Amino acid sequence: MTTSHQLLLADVETRVAKVQDEVIAVRRDLHAHPELGWHEVRTTELIKQRLIAAGLSPQVLPTGTGLICDIGSGDTCVALRADIDALPVPDAIEAPWRSTIDGAAHACGHDIHTAALLGAGLVLAGMARDGLLDRRVRLIFQPAEEVMPGGALGVIAAGGIDGVHRIYGLHCDPRLQVGQIGLRVGALTAAADRILVRLTGPGGHTSRPHLTADLVYALAQLVTELPAALSRRVDPRAGMSLVWGRITAGSAANAIPARGEVEGTVRCLDVNAWRLAAELIPTLAAQLVAPFGVEVDTEVTHGVPPVVNDPRAIEVFRSAVEQTLGVDSLAQTDQSLGGEDFAWYLEHVPGAMARLGVRAVGTETAADLHTPEFNPSENAIALGTTLLTASALLD
């Protein structure tokens, strides 16, 4: 690395420190006002106005939420992405910036991602004004990551990664302490689909189940046997997992309902097995409930493929960590069964996602993602801002 690059990266730390109070204030505002996928109107406007104030020209996506914003100029274009939507879960944290929206919270840390990217944007905008940015960097504030098959597809359709040669993103990880960055070459996440199975049949009195299609019993068989049947039809090395999250049927103890449904997700470490499951699950569901005389309708909502990190992009991340945060900040991370629509970008351009440690220093455990108690440390924001900025400069 040249002396000029060393000076540039040293300058990043100073610039990050100058914007952190503002960026944390934005994060708290976003956390207090979470918006679900495709409804991030206030969130988009807040980001847009702050970027305009920094002298930039953000462009709202055609869907009306989310935006992209280029900084600098040149043939080389590096993209930095954050997701901006919240989850339909309550917020149980005790803080002045607790969610003010009933049943909605940033329980996956997207407010942290957004704040870190906003900070990177402000730092890079300042560097561009000072003539220190020799490339083009595109900020992507993406909507609807939590909505299958994901808002990344809308960004791609709108030309959001046209001209991009590599893309980088972060994801909060409460298993890692603040100061740690988890990196992995190859598959980082799993493929994920949503499964909805509806059963219908003649209901009736529970005293005469033989005159009905015993729909609740059929549902129970489906819930227990479909995951087992699937495990015998797919290579076990694929790591496929079908887990139910919701089951609905009936309203009275002595009445067999005429309709019921069960909903869950299927996740898989192998992309080929994932594609097979979309055809296999409806067939197995029909076979399992056939003896009970019910009608079955199975919907498989195709979700996302695995995030597969490019080796070159991981090396950029690694270099950025070593030269800003220090080699002790590097951590290995395992492939998870979580889904992440960042994978769609990687179908078009190489890139990588890193795991950002958000567990407070000095604590042994932290609430997991997608729970009401998830409460990432805000100290992680500066590290995320630094990592994204340095990666854009080093690519």
Query: Residue ranges: pLDDT <50 for 5 or more in a row?
Result: none
Sheet-strand content, in percent, reads 15-25%
Q: Provide the CATH superfamily of the largest domain.
A: Zn peptidases
The CATH architecture of the largest domain can be given as: 3-Layer(aba) Sandwich
- Radius of gyration from CA coordinates: 23 Å
Task: Give the CATH level 1 class of the largest domain.
Answer: Alpha Beta
Oligomer: single chain
Give the neighbour order of strands across the main sheet: 1-2-4-3-5-16-6-15
What is the averaged pLDDT score?
96
Secondary structure topology:
Blueprint: H1 3-32, H2 41-53, E1 59-60, E2 67-71, E3 77-83, H3 110-129, E4 136-142, H4 152-157, E5 166-177, E6 181-183, E7 186-187, E8 191-200, E9 204-205, H5 215-231, E10 241-249, E11 255-256, E12 259-268, H6 271-289, E13 295-304, E14 308-309, H7 311-325, E15 330-332, H8 342-346, E16 351-359, H9 379-394
Parallel strand pairs: 3-4, 3-5, 5-16, 6-15
Antiparallel strand pairs: 1-2, 2-4, 6-16, 7-14, 8-12, 8-13, 9-11, 10-12
Helix pairs in contact: 1-3, 1-9, 3-9, 5-6, 7-9
Nutshell version of this structure?
By secondary structure, the chain is α/β, with parallel strands linked by helices. It contains nine helices and 16 strands.
Structure description:
The mean pLDDT is 96. The chain has helices at 3-32, 41-53, 110-129, 152-157, 215-231, 271-289, 311-325, 342-346, 379-394, and strands spanning 59-60, 67-71, 77-83, 136-142, 166-177, 181-183, 186-187, 191-200, 204-205, 241-249, 255-256, 259-268, 295-304, 308-309, 330-332, 351-359. Helix 3 (110-129) links the parallel strand 3 (77-83) and strand 4 (136-142). The longest helix has 30 residues, at 3-32. The chain starts with a helix and ends with a helix. The strands form four sheets. The protein has an eight-stranded mixed sheet with strand order 1-2-4-3-5-16-6-15. Strands 10-12-8-13 form a four-stranded antiparallel sheet, covered by helices on one side. It has 395 residues and is of the alpha/beta class. Helix 3 crosses helix 9. The protein folds into two domains: 3-189 and 306-394, Zn peptidases (Aminopeptidase, 3-Layer(aba) Sandwich); 191-304, Alpha-Beta Plaits, CATH 3.30.70.360. The chain is built from nine helices and 16 strands.
